[in-house]
Each structure stands twice: as C-alpha cells, then as structure tokens.
Amino acid sequence: MPLRGSSPLVRPAGSGRADGAGTKQGGGGGPATRTASRGARAERLAPYVLVAPAVLILVTLRLWPLVLGVNYSFTGDGADNGTPVGLGNYLELAGDPLFRTALRNVGLLVLLLPVAVAIPGLLATFIYLRVPGHRVYRGVYFFPAVLSPVIVGAIVNLMLGFDGPVNAALGTVGVGPVDWLGDPGIAMFTVTGVHVWATFGMALVVFLAGFSTLDASLLDAARVDGASLGQVVRHVIIPGLTRTIQFVFVTTLIGMLTSMFGLLFVMTSGGPEGSTYLPEYYIWHQQGQLNRPALASAASTVLFVVMLVVGLAQITLLRRAGRQD
C-alpha cells in the first residue's frame, strides 16, 4: 500500500533507462546509426565513381568507334559508298593475295612471340640476380625503347644496306653480302628482329616489376639445394611470375600487330613483293592510298578478331601450364 502523499506512479529503479533504450531501438536508429549507414553506402559507391571516368573514356574512344567500324565494314566503297553490301568486303579480303600474305605474317609473329618474350625475361633474370654490371645493362637495354621507330628504321637501313657495315663485317669472315631488306625470304625476319630489339625495354621493366613480388626465400632455398640456373628459372621464377608472363605475352603480341607500321614504312614499305605486309600496313594502304575506308574497316575487324582469339588462347595455355607446374 503506497505511503500517504507519495505518487502511485513511482517506477522501479532502472525502468526509465530500460524504457529509454526500448524507445531508441524502436525509433529506427539515432543520428549515429544513420551516419554510419550513409558512410557504408558511400564506401560501396566509391569504386564505381572512381572507375566511371575511365569507363566513359573507354566506351567513347574505343568501344563506340569499334562498333561503328564493324558496321561500316558491311557497306561499300566508291559509287556504293554507304550502301549495304553484306559480306562483300570480307569476301574480297579472302581473295586478296596481299591480305593473305599479311595473315601469314601474323602467324609468323605468333610463332616468334615466345622468343620476343624470352629475351627480356632472361635479361630481367640476369639483372635481378645482380650479374656484374647489371646497373649499366638496365639502362642500355631500355635505351632503344625511347627512340622513335622512324629513327630506328633509318639507322638500321644504313647498317643493313647491301654495302653497309654489317655486310662489310660479314665479308671479313668470308660470308657473302646478304640482302637483308630486299630478299622476300629474309625481310620479314629482319623487320621483326629490329622491332623486338627496339621495344623489349618496356617488357624488361614489367618483368623487373614482377620480380619485386617474387618471394626471395624460394630463391635462397633453391640455391641451398644446389639448383642450377635452369632449374631455378623453370621451377621458381616462371611459376612465381605466371601473371607477369601472361601480361607480357599479350602486350607484346598487341605491339607486334599494331606498332610495327613505322618500321615497315621506313624499312621496306611493305616490300619486297609485299612480303612484309601486316594487317595494319594493309589497312593504311587501303584507307590512305586507295581511299577504300569500308574495305579497311573490314580488315580492321578481322585484325581485332585475330588478336582477341590469339590473346585468349595464349592466356588459356599459360594458365594450364601454370597449374601443371
């Protein structure tokens, strides 16, 4: 029975705090909860906001022109400009001996690609293992990458001329002069070799960056076990640089198929007898010399498909090789 003068509504101690807590929970959260929710939402959206400008540039300057080029490849040239011709341009490409030569040269580049990747990979290995003079070698190997293809082509033309210093040096050992740029059976190998020499500096930098992620304890363990250099490369370095090797393979192939125009233009101009034609040079010839943009668009589409298929095939093979190791 309540005391006289006291309120009959007196609550037990702590009941106010319990009610307050219940009210706060039932009210849907306070300012701190709403702030945390907004922060989490902003954190989820931040990657998309940061990537959006790059995606917009890629779509505007790459994907949309690609779609327009594929669409344009199904139209005609000259009097049939803008008129749909179906697969007419692609059928013409299939019957053009110059384009078939260009595709054969693409196959040759694919076969030579492992050599083009192995050279900077081995040089990066020697630099990483700190062979005597590795600091000097690093600068010397990268120097050709900063030269313009036009300059490289002009210098090589002087050196590989029929009466040039290279043939003069060969003559001193009894080897007759070689027509490095005039023989259809040799010219493509010559241009490819010059391109590999002039561009492998970038691949060398990528390999050195990959070596920085390699676990040095594995190399130390291999040395303690008495492994030879070949065994270290096969069982330690290659498995540890699988992703780097995949990247270098793809970028080197793209460079071979899309960045040799300068050398081809200066050194051979597609000759002799069209033996050094590549799809990019064929595209320029059709567009810039013969004013046939629709046929050039069809050749560009074929080049894109070839690069995509070969690149995906290389990545698949390298991944399988990495799993087996």
Automatic annotation (TrEMBL):
Family: Belongs to the binding-protein-dependent transport system permease family.
Pfam families xrefs: BPD_transp_1 (PF00528)
Stretches assigned to the ABC transmembrane type-1 domain: 98-314
Region (Disordered): 1-37
Record field: transmembrane: 45-64, 106-129, 141-162, 186-209, 247-267, 294-318
GO process annotations (BP): transmembrane transport
Native source species: Nonomuraea montanisoli
GO cellular component: plasma membrane
Protein keywords: Cell membrane, Membrane, Transmembrane, Transmembrane helix, Transport
Cellular localization per UniProt: Cell membrane
Membrane topology, record value: Multi-pass membrane protein
Source taxon at top rank: Bacteria
Major localisation: membrane
Full protein name: Sugar ABC transporter permease
Residue ranges with Gly residues bias: 17-31
InterPro entries in the cross-refs: MetI-like, MetI-like_sf, UgpAE/MalFG_permease
SUPFAM superfamilies: MetI-like (SSF161098)
